[in-house]
Write a structure and sequence with these properties.
By secondary structure, the protein is an all-alpha fold. It has one domain (6-368). Helix content is 57%, strand content 3%. The strands form 2 sheets. Strands 1-4 form a two-stranded parallel ribbon. Strands 2-3 form a two-stranded parallel ribbon. Helix 9 (223-249) packs across helix 14 (334-347).
């Protein structure tokens, strides 16, 4: 874990917050028809890819057709989860009053129920971003990813757990809201999650029935190939989502925080925490769309309910504001960020890694005043 080299005075923090509020206001005031047209086009593309993928499974005996079907279905699932589901469920399009774009009504192609996810992600993660022992995305209750997490022999399996989480990522997200690690430790009771479990059972049944029963059966004698194709598409989506999300949260120099230092944070301090606890991934337009624009994780953490298509438009301005205040703007290509995350997962698997006694990075410690 690294501390920052620059420090903002309380006055600078509040001015920084005002600049971010002003940027947000300008985005909100500019929302309109282009944003609606964009998301509708993405939805049409996603549906077209899904129909194409399902249709090609009927020609699955022909390997090129099967591969093309898997490719189309993989892209459909990625778009559904990343650029559509994640962003719609954040309320990014609630202002349209379109029931199909309602954050409270939308359900995605994922075994994790939308209602559970909105609590664990929209509320817990985005409220307590990178606050150790509050933000359950720090290690997902499985990994040691930060030196503030006390080492235990269990963490020697870090690389194995990370690999399994990547492969079965949608299932990990599904279990996330159950706080399984705390159930195992006896800190929570199974009975406390009765409603969450009912939602999971219903959603899991629908997803398994759709991908592994209904659509395979519809292709008759090609059912085994269709089942394999659906499983492969889910795997591709899982690996992609894991990579994008981990590269936005856990590369080197992304900071974490303690509960104590964030107890009474101002709006400016909240914005500052989002900057310090996030990382971006560089790439082209298609890459950003397929990532759900979570390749702009910094901008997403700052403005989670703003349509994600706006993040590339404001990234340069956010970066300029960070430079003005001497703040870091963690960004880099996918290979760099992914390698950084992989090294971190291996490093914190080992005893004595980092500094087990080191406190989470503080907003005030060991930093020089930034230029006014």
């Amino acid at each position: 874990m690294t501390g920052l080299q620059d420090r903002l005075t309380p006055e600078q923090v509040e001015e920084f917050g005002r600049e971010m509020d002003e940027l947000r206001r300008r985005i909100v005031d500019d929302l309109g028809a282009e944003d609606v047209e964009y998301i509708h086009n993405i939805i049409k593309t996603q549906r077209g890819l899904e129909v194409t993928g399902r249709a090609l499974m009927y020609a699955g005996f022909f390997p090129p057709a099967w591969l093309a079907g898997v490719g189309a279905l993989s892209l459909a699932k990625i778009l559904d989860n990343m650029e559509i589901g994640h962003n719609v469920m954040h309320g990014q399009y609630d202002w349209t009053r379109d029931p199909a774009l309602s954050s409270q009504r939308f359900e995605w192609d994922n075994v994790a129920p939308a209602e559970n996810w909105r609590h664990s992600h929209n509320y817990i993660h985005h409220t307590y971003t990178n606050i150790v022992d509050k933000d359950r995305d720090v290690g997902y209750g499985i990994l040691r990813i930060d030196p503030a997490q006390k080492w235990h022999p269990y963490y020697l399996g870090n690389p194995v757990y990370a690999t399994l989480l990547a492969i079965f990522f949608q299932w990990g997200v599904m279990l996330h809201d159950l706080e399984v690690d705390r159930l195992v430790k006896g800190e929570r009771k199974w009975s406390e999650f009765a409603e969450e479990r009912r939602r999971i059972a219903r959603k899991m049944g629908r997803q398994i029935g759709k991908d592994y029963v209904l659509f395979p059966v519809l292709t008759g004698p090609l059912a085994p190939l269709t089942l394999a194709g659906n499983a492969t598409a889910n795997l591709v989506r899982n690996l992609w989502a894991f990579g994008i999300i981990f590269c936005g949260h856990f590369p080197a120099d992304v900071e974490s925080f303690s509960e104590e230092e964030t107890e009474q944070e101002s709006r400016g301090q909240w914005y500052l925490r989002q900057i310090l606890g996030s990382a971006n991934i560089t790439g082209g337009s298609l890459f950003h769309i397929l990532s759900g624009n979570l390749s702009h994780q910094i901008e997403h953490h700052l403005f989670p309910d703003i349509p994600a298509r706006r993040y590339p438009q404001i990234a340069g301005e956010v970066r300029a504001i960070c430079e003005k205040y001497g703040l870091p703007y963690n960004t880099g290509p996918l290979r760099k960020q992914l390698w950084s995350v992989a090294k971190k997962i291996v490093k914190f698997a080992l005893p004595g890694s980092g500094d087990d006694k080191q406190e989470p990075a503080t907003l005030e410690r060991d930093r020089k005043p930034a230029a006014a």
